[in-house]
Amino acid sequence: MQRRTFLAALSSTLAVLGRSAGEGRQVSSLPDPPIEDLVAANRILAMEGVLDGMGHVSVRHNSRANRFLLARSMVPELVAAADIMEYDLESNAVDARGRASYRERFIHSEIYKARPDVNAIVHCHTPSLIPFADSDVPLRAMYHMAAFVADGVPVFDIRQAAGITDLLVGDATLGRALAATLGGKSVALMRHHGAVVVASSIPNVVGRSVYLDLNARIQMQTVALGGKATYVDPAEAKLRMTDPNEYARAWELWKRKATR
Amino acid sequence: MQRRTFLAALSSTLAVLGRSAGEGRQVSSLPDPPIEDLVAANRILAMEGVLDGMGHVSVRHNSRANRFLLARSMVPELVAAADIMEYDLESNAVDARGRASYRERFIHSEIYKARPDVNAIVHCHTPSLIPFADSDVPLRAMYHMAAFVADGVPVFDIRQAAGITDLLVGDATLGRALAATLGGKSVALMRHHGAVVVASSIPNVVGRSVYLDLNARIQMQTVALGGKATYVDPAEAKLRMTDPNEYARAWELWKRKATR
Amino acid sequence: MQRRTFLAALSSTLAVLGRSAGEGRQVSSLPDPPIEDLVAANRILAMEGVLDGMGHVSVRHNSRANRFLLARSMVPELVAAADIMEYDLESNAVDARGRASYRERFIHSEIYKARPDVNAIVHCHTPSLIPFADSDVPLRAMYHMAAFVADGVPVFDIRQAAGITDLLVGDATLGRALAATLGGKSVALMRHHGAVVVASSIPNVVGRSVYLDLNARIQMQTVALGGKATYVDPAEAKLRMTDPNEYARAWELWKRKATR
Amino acid sequence: MQRRTFLAALSSTLAVLGRSAGEGRQVSSLPDPPIEDLVAANRILAMEGVLDGMGHVSVRHNSRANRFLLARSMVPELVAAADIMEYDLESNAVDARGRASYRERFIHSEIYKARPDVNAIVHCHTPSLIPFADSDVPLRAMYHMAAFVADGVPVFDIRQAAGITDLLVGDATLGRALAATLGGKSVALMRHHGAVVVASSIPNVVGRSVYLDLNARIQMQTVALGGKATYVDPAEAKLRMTDPNEYARAWELWKRKATR
Description:
Four copies of one chain form a homotetramer.
Chain A: H1 2-23, H2 35-47, E1 56-60, E2 67-71, E3 84-88, H3 106-114, E4 120-124, H4 130-134, E5 155-156, H5 158-162, H6 172-182, E6 187-190, E7 194-199, H7 202-225, H8 234-240, H9 248-258
Parallel strand pairs in A: 5-6
Antiparallel strand pairs in A: 1-2, 1-4, 2-3, 4-7, 6-7
Helix pairs in contact in A: 2-7, 2-9, 3-6
């Protein structure tokens, strides 16, 4: 069923792309927007337990840097190409056609505004991250597969930013406060809520989200083991992270599994 | 096989409903009893690990507030429409037709009596809840997905209510004692036994049961991490819980997966 | 494939039973040996994570109390009816036909000799049990689904019984020592090895093995939670265990899932 | 799909073997290289959670002791016969045909050089091992299924061997340093990285990798339980490990599941 849904969505996407290629030669030299990879990312993140019924993943438009793509308000695991909407950096839908928007889309727009180097963003409630979001124990880089954690992981406390709220990042002001906490890092935890993960591409943001979860579990087990622990050095992490396609090998596997 | 069983049960239900619609026009304006959703809830709770071979979920009848629907005594994962029985608030089966009843159905009848706001109830033995039921560490709300926990989670100790028993809530007196411990809350833990979760609808009681399990695991991991932890504030939780269809998005996913 | 293997094995068993019924009327009044349930038990215990590639489950012959049935030396998950062998209480195969025997079959024969009330035995290496087998923290009954644990769980230390060995219960002397440690209980842990679980029937020994695993995990989580814990009282456990078919409901589910 | 890929790869392998058997009688008396088992090992280790998108497994060539077989640089779970490459003990590919090599293949070549008794090697990042790699708590043998752990498990710290690096064992010098840390043992942990496991055969190295993971989890749970623990004695382990086909029974199951 999933597969059929996916193929149907894919073929309708291809039809749309084919039509626009036929109708307007002037766009045919631009790369296609990465809709297929964004659909795959939604399904992979569900498959790997990073997202459940909630959470979302976006990508900056590949030819219009002030636009980003995000699914309509729905369960990530069921997202198909027809569910992908385009937003400007004020989180206005460019062509909603009646499709509802995620209330927390401001997380994405404000980070894309503040971080030109970021092309893909995940917002998640992964259970392994909450203990670090809710306590004063900092996340540390436990192994080379999560070397990016060595940069440090700030915690966004919405209560300090805006007092008593419903805990959701539901407007641009809160989105900006979260982006300010994130600064130049790869991850910010969100107290009593979850996390936001950013990267240069969809495969990288998916890879970081998956290995952030694994790294958090490993750190919790290391603490429970009770010995004296050591961590990846930031200088080691910097050397480790020179490959711009760091998670390409795993991405190939995940995409194949999530879309079959 | 599961799916075939489900479809068979569904079609026989539809046949029954069709016949009564044909035979008596006067009931055709009433909403159908939520049998399909109750069957789905049984399967979802098994799929998500909230229920195993034991435990049960009920719904208050949508047009007769002094009646509730509950499967015959059987494994939740295998429940089909034909297994759903109707009970009055003394836990008498309205039309048993030889079908056996759960011995602990008094949990449901006594809570429906005491709580007019409650329309759906889960009784479960979810492993992650037992450490909190068996110890003096209170369950706390760790993140916004389980904001309802911020109301507080009382523990029902059957030994204090009735001395040495077989630990089962097997009659109306014990059911009343459990309902009294629950009071106006969303959850009561049951010492050496499990928990009862209540809500305004089937999707909400299923959502609360799933996220109660996740919240309990997150709290155990937070404690093991050893730092200073903070929790969702009751005022934040109150603002977070204004959506009456809080778990609608996840429910759509769960129902699709559990009934295919 | 699994299912086909199972059906093939089943039909050959039925053929054998049919033939003997035709050839000798005098045995037709005896109940069939519970081969089908023993095959199911092997698969259920693998499915539920109690057994992995190793471990075994046996049943006392239902009409010859000095005989028991046990698979040939093989992986539990792949056991079919044709793999079931019959043994006497000295662990001699009655009709080996070239089939190899488990080296640790003496666990079964010596317990059947010492315990007339026992009709089914599981020997397993379930990971959740090893921490209790290897340490001085006793297993305690955490909830009513594992009430039998309240009787107490002795630990068999083969080093105390026989000094330095290969840790396997590979002869009758070691089997007798293990049976002596078990005494009248339902479970004995085996230091640096695993456990043995006994009961009055196949469904009960499977149910106990599954809930022993859950109970062990719950106890470990309760300890990690750090509060003051309480346990099921032996008097409560005794009242809870009066149902001779305690795990019948779960057995129905497990058997359906494991043999489809 | 996986199965079809596997069968296709297998049949092309058989075609190749058939052709060489037809073309040159002089090689027909040599045993076939264990390509099928190496493909199965890749899939088993992914299925059992030892490897994820990264990591690798190799086997020494069965008729040329100065050669070893290793997949091209790719995800283990997708490895097919056509992906297997042959290397000399300097990690040069004998017949690359454009296929990329794992950067860390020097782990394999340097251990094969130093250890004539080793015929199969796994390099993995199994999450349960990292807490022991990153802390000063030594891995101990918790039960007879992982008796080989009783020999002791050294930790390779690349920072001590080579200062600040990208943490990868990317050349022969680092491979030699790792082999020196391994010495005559079965396992070496790699700080902030993972582990290397060695054995006399593919089934044994797979079995050791799977039970090393289980043993690590058991030890972490035993520590968390807080009591006084005991461990398998090296003399017991030595008696336990006399069977050269120790994991044959589990291997049969794993291979059947991973290649269907």
